[in-house]
Amino acid sequence: MGPVRRMKSKTDLINCLLEKYSDLPREAVIKEDLLRSGISFSEDALRVAGGYKPKAYFIFSFDLVPISQMEQQENLRVPEEICLTDGPLKLRRTIVSVRVNPKSPYRVGISANGRIVLELEQRLIADVEFPRLPEYYRRRLANGKPITDIAPTIQWGYLLYLTVFRKCQYYGKREECQFCDINENYRQQKRSGRSYTAVKSVDEILEALEIIAETDSLSQAYTVTGGSVTSSLEGKSEVDFYAQYPEAIERRFPGRWIAKVVVQALPRDEVRRFKQAGIQIYHPNYEVWDRRLFQILCAGKDRYIGRDEWIRRILDAAEVFGPGCVIPNFVAGIEMSRPYGFQTVAQAMDSTAEGLHYFMSRGIVPRFTTWCPEPLSVLGRQNPEGAPLEYHLELLRLWRDIHRSYRLRPPPGYGKPGVGQAVFSVSSFMDVIASPAETGDAMCPAAAQ
Ligand code: SF4
Fold first, then answer.
1. Measured in angstroms, how far is the CA atom of residue 131 from the centroid of ligand 1?
2. For the chain, is the Cβ count within 10 Å smaller at the N or the C terminus?
3. Within-domain flag for 193
4. Residues 33, 66: one domain?
5. What is the pTM of this model?
């Protein structure tokens, strides 16, 4: 079957792509489209969602409209994620991050017999489950801040997401990554009245984790992350600032969670510091492989570190952590953004394949998040439709096949792989890995020592 013709409706397009990509799990086709298009909610569904775990805005907005355009106050009411099952496609459990879009053709509502359902253009797609409200979400720190601000969980409770610095020192059009709305999102959340701490103290993090450790058994990993520090933050360099958190966490809760950090690609000595602090998995995200696009879309990173140095540092980090525990992320779809991106899906795949071979042949497994064209970012404003669904499906195929060809293990720190088991909610890369029933969470050999 050749490229998909323009379809009359989204339903036709989905049916066509389900057939064309029948080697991918059908769950992944729906999930990718939900992530790129967003979800709308009926008033009844929002009312029901009130008893479940709310979206915490763990780092970016990950919405397709700004809060100022949410007429139903979705920012305060939608669940963090939804779990899809059954429906006409007989979907296996599929966890999808909620990206608000009141104009999306996908709508979560309540059926005539009271079930929560997902519909596409008024046709049933799947039954929906909302995430349980964890006990610790009801608690506050001694200073009155809610846990949802200091230590929210995503991935169906698997991952504690510790954005310890909610802003980025790459500032303005000439430095901020063009797909990123971290600074704008921070401003809109503060304007909306949400408790949204710019710089979290080590004590706040420890106090929140204390509560979680007492009451929760679902969380298996934590990520320490935040915006880049180009000069200093609270008198500390980037590595000194970020390393203080795992150092304190591992001192207080040694080995309780898989420890991960998402920060820039730092020099080898600084990366070692994270390892010594107890970090097991390092994510120096390269965002986009193509050299020209990296220079344009990640101008700050290019100016301060440079694309070649960034790649070199990823390889250096692999010597520190072991290649299986260095997992750089890229943002799937931005390479097709206007006005600078590739014109065709085939060109985009050629470029991305080059990057995947480069890393995977060295045992490093990049992963990706599905681009959410946030209107508060430069690229989101220019590309409200994001990348075509076919791009995302071709990418899943490509990633799966290259990963398979190097006989690599599922990346550690993401929970169980495979359709029906995966909990990673912002792309389907874990859903397309074939999963022997007994596959557990892969651990880094380095971490297991
Ligand atoms: S480095 Fe880029 S992607 Fe990361 S927070 Fe800053 S602007 Fe956003």
1. 28
2. C
3. yes
4. yes
5. 0.95
Is residue 1 in some structural domain? no
Q: What is the pLDDT of residues 6-53, one digit of tens each?
A: 677 999 999 999 999 999 999 999 999 999 999 999 999 999 999 999
- 437 has pLDDT over 70: no
Q: Which of residues 129, 163, 185 is at a domain's end?
A: 129
Looking at the fold, whether 172 and 274 belong to one and the same domain comes out as: yes
pLDDT-derived band at 449 (thresholds 50, 70, 90) equals very low
How many angstroms separate the Cα of 298 from the Cα of each of 330, 414, 420, 447?
12, 26, 35, 31
Q: Which of 2-6, 326-330, 368-372, 394-398 has the lowest mean pLDDT?
A: 2-6
Which residue has its alpha carbon closest to ligand 1 atom 5?
Answer: 227
Task: Give percent above pLDDT 70 in the chain.
Answer: 95
Q: Does one domain contain both 161 and 295?
A: yes
103 and 159 inside one domain: no
**How far away, in angstroms, is 142 Cα from ligand 1 center?**
31
Same domain (yes/no): 382, 311: yes
Same domain, 284 and 418: yes
pLDDT of 370 higher than 80: yes
Q: Number of folded domains in the chain?
A: 2
Q: Is there a single domain that holds both residue 181 and residue 318? A: yes
Q: Are 195 and 329 within one domain?
A: yes
For residue 181, the ligand 1 atom closest to its alpha carbon is 8
Residue 393 has pLDDT above 60, yes or no: yes
Question: pLDDT value at position 281?
Answer: 98
Find the 171 Cα to ligand 1 centroid distance in Å.
9
What is the residue range of 150's domain?
138-423
Ligand 1 proximal residues by C-beta, below 6 Å: 168, 170, 176-177, 180, 182, 227-228
- Residue 245 domain-assigned? yes
**Is residue 439, in this structure, part of any structural domain at all?**
no
